[in-house]
Amino acid sequence: MSEPPQESPTLSVVVPLCNEEGNVVFLTREIRRAAESIGVPYEIVYVDDGSTDDTWLLVRQVGAEDARVKGVSLSRNFGHQNAIFAGLNHASGEVVITMDGDLQHPPSLLPELFEEWKRGNHVVETRRIESEDVSFFKKTTSRWFYRIFSFLSGLPMAQGTSDFRLMDRLVVDAVIQMQDAALFLRGMAYWVGFRKTTVPYQAQSRHAGRTKYSLLRMFRFAMSSMLSFSLVPLRIGIWLGLITSGLAFVELVYILVSYLRGNVVPGWASTLAVISFMFGILFILVGIIGSYIGNILETVKNRPRFIVKERLGL
Predict the structure, then answer these.
(1) Please, what's the largest Cα pairwise distance for the chain?
(2) Is 191 within 8 Å of 229 (Cβ atoms)?
(3) Pick from 297, 155, 164: which is nearest to 230 by CA?
(4) What is the predicted pLDDT for the residue at 133?
(5) Cα–Cα distance for residue pair 190/185, rounded to 1 Å
(6) How far apart are CA 284 and CA 237, in angstroms?
(7) What architecture is the 11-229+304-312 domain classified under in CATH?
(8) Contact call for residues 24 and 58 (beta carbons, < 8 A)
(9) Helix, strand or coil, per DSSP, at residue 236
(10) How far apart are CA 46 and CA 63, in angstroms?
(11) Is the confidence at residue 269, as pLDDT, over 60?
(12) Domain ranges across the chain
């Protein structure tokens, strides 16, 4: 029998889903258990990000059994960050917790996150403690990404930060108003300010299904995140341009002096190498500038971040 709907939930749990049919039922049970131990009205907002399996069908089934389970089905796959953003737009709780649907983010941590909010924290981040089975490559790339991002953006983001976090309604409303072309919710939650704290957790094994993030997708995500939050790459380009221009000027002076002395100018191979090096830097800088221009274009288009195909209980 369906539970009576909660008109004003205190807690909203937002979960993006993409081909997670093997996780929906078990995940719903675990979230219920954790949320009910908190003792406040709650809702679960599932966002189906263009799944091609029976994910949405299962969301509708669990929603028919419990009116606190709500859902948003997007018209296609808009990406993980946009799916979370869609959930934030549909969540109505005073507190919103976002988490992935593969159960690597343990629902059992929800009461601890909520307690930190009751202590006055507006954002409660989580820091993933890597298990021993995580590859050296993944650990190294993750560590360097957060170091580089923190350096470029000036936002002190610790290694292991994920999209498993609690946000107060003030923070959620501030994030929704941001017009970034490339969404990076981890950075946005830091940028808006407010009082923050961090809770460590041990990552669990994926309950079912496969990861949706390939190496190429992770690289694109990392690049767009850094370009979205920092102009340092452009400033580095200016300094590289000044340095290479200085080197070219020194080379020109050397050639003129040698010519006036009547000497044959040696080192054409090295000169060509320098020219090739400068052209390589030039193309890199053009690519960086092109990425920023692309972000401007996406912002000017003002296209919606997501399109809703169907809603459940909303």
Answers:
(1) 99
(2) yes
(3) 155
(4) 55
(5) 9
(6) 9
(7) Alpha-Beta Complex (3.90)
(8) yes
(9) helix
(10) 10
(11) no
(12) 11-229+304-312, 232-301
C-alpha–C-alpha distance, residues 185 and 213, integer Å: 16
CA–CA dist 64, 148 (Å, integer) = 46
Q: Residues 28, 55: contact at Cβ < 8 Å?
A: no
Parallel, antiparallel, or unpaired: how do β-strands 161-168 and 95-98 relate?
antiparallel
With a cut of 70, say whether residue 163 has pLDDT above it: yes
Please report which confidence band the pLDDT of residue 1 belongs to, taking 50, 70 and 90 as the band edges.
very low
Q: What is the DSSP string of 295-311?
A: HHHHHHHT--S--EEEE
Residue appearing with tokens 């969540």: 91
Going by their DSSP bridges, the two strands 196-202 and 42-48 should be labelled as: unpaired
Q: Measured between alpha carbons, how far is residue 138 from residues 117, 216, 226 in Å?
A: 31, 13, 18
CB 72 within 8 Å of CB 87: yes
Instruction: Name the one residue in this structure whose structure tokens are 């090739």.
Output: 276
Q: What's the N-to-C CA distance of the chain in angstroms? A: 19
